[in-house]
Specification:
The protein is an alpha+beta fold and 45 residues long. It has one domain (12-44). Helix content is 29%, strand content 9%. It is built from 2 helices and 2 strands, in the order ββαα. The chain has helices at residues 27-31, 37-44, and strands at 12-13, 18-19. The protein has a two-stranded antiparallel sheet with strand order 1-2. The two termini are 18 Å apart. The structure holds iron/sulfur cluster (SF4). Iron/sulfur cluster (SF4) binds at residues 1, 9, 11-12, 19, 21, 25, 29.
Length: 45
Amino acid sequence: MARLDDGWCAALDRASMRCTIYEQRPWICREFEMGSYECKEERAA
Ligand code: SF4
């Protein structure tokens, strides 16, 4: 996914923290496991 200058995904609605293309989101987003090690690393950054 395209990222903005600050590294956040361009498809994220920051007001709601929801994906604006959820039904069409890329495969990598579908594979990303909520609460996984990678998820916690990203949230901590
Ligand atoms: S699910 Fe994927 S496309 Fe949607 S906001 Fe998150 S990173 Fe971006």
